[in-house]
Specification:
- With about 280 residues, the protein is α/β, with parallel strands linked by helices.
- It has two domains: about 200 residues, Spore Coat Polysaccharide Biosynthesis Protein SpsA, Chain A; about 40 residues.
- Helix 9 runs antiparallel to helix 10.
- The longest helix has 16 residues.
- About 40% of the residues lie in helices and about 20% in strands.
Length: about 280
């Protein structure tokens, strides 16, 4: 179990996140006791003054400024290498942690010595649970998830009830969302941190798979609930679709190489081929 001496390093990667980061940091700074905590914001060359605002309003928060947009994985790795802490919490800037949520998540992981990663129950601003866990990425699982997600977002009543039911069940899963995941530092270092070939998207699934290949498990901690104002920053980035497709192809090339060529053909036929 995590005791009062267990230390926590929270890493938040920002990119033009001035409108989101305030509520996130307000919910964290001074609210993670009894765990000694450092909070580090790694800013990916924002043009909206995110880094300066964080320095001015939250002097206890460490700010690391990347001279370029290094991407999600590389920026997180910068923060991880610059910090200590028995546990590392990767958190999106568009999340808000209600009182006790972070502690519940850390203790949920600490209670299972065989587990390397734990993820939280993420709720939208309207209180709907997010599909923040899942099966390994693959053609069949992606198709099933796409259909299921479409029905869920259309608010098909039976599907909404099913997601709500599943989201309340703590259990072992294949992966949890990188929007909020806590990781044991020794496990993180053992796999070489996040794979930087993933600029944005699927790096969380890849990290979880790396852990399971070492015989470690991944937990979904339903009792740790955070708000996730999903997609606000992504909506400002016109390259979001292409970034996702690049990471999808990279994932297939790494984990499912026999499917990678078919994926590239599919993307080309559907007009989603990647620019060189």
């Amino acid at each position: 179990m995590a005791d009062n001496r267990s230390t926590l390093a929270i890493i938040i990667v920002t990119y033009n996140s001035a409108t989101e980061i305030g509520p996130c940091l307000d919910s964290l700074v001074g609210h993670t006791e009894p765990f000694p905590t450092t909070i580090t914001v790694v800013d990916n060359a924002s043009s909206d003054g995110t880094a300066g605002m964080v320095r001015d309003r939250w002097p206890s928060v460490q700010v690391i400024e990347s001279p370029t947009n290094a991407g999600f994985s590389r920026a997180n790795n910068l923060g991880i290498r610059a910090t200590g802490g028995d546990y590392v919490l990767l958190l999106n800037p568009d999340t808000v942690a209600p009182p006790g949520a972070i502690q519940t998540l850390v203790r949920g992981l600490a209670a299972h010595p065989d587990a390397a990663i734990a993820g939280a129950r993420l709720l939208s601003e309207h209180g709907f649970p997010e599909l923040s866990w899942g099966d390994p990425i693959g053609p069949w699982n992606e198709l099933k998830r796409k259909v299921f997600s479409t029905l869920y977002h259309r608010k098909i009543r039976s599907i909404v009830r099913k997601v709500d039911q599943l989201s309340r069940q703590a259990r072992e899963v294949s992966w949890v969302s990188g929007a909020c995941m806590v990781i044991r530092r020794p496990d993180l270092e053992a796999v070489g941190l996040l794979d930087e070939r993933f600029f944005m998207y699927t790096e969380d699934v890849d990290l979880c798979i790396a852990m399971t290949k070492r015989g470690r498990t991944v937990l979904y901690v339903a009792g740790a609930e955070l708000l996730h104002y999903r997609g606000r920053s992504a909506a400002r980035n016109p390259a979001t679709e292409q970034l996702y497709r690049r990471s999808q192809v990279a994932y297939y090339e790494k984990h499912l190489p026999h499917w990678a060529g078919l994926l590239r053909t599919y993307l080309k036929l559907t007009g989603k081929s990647l620019a060189d």
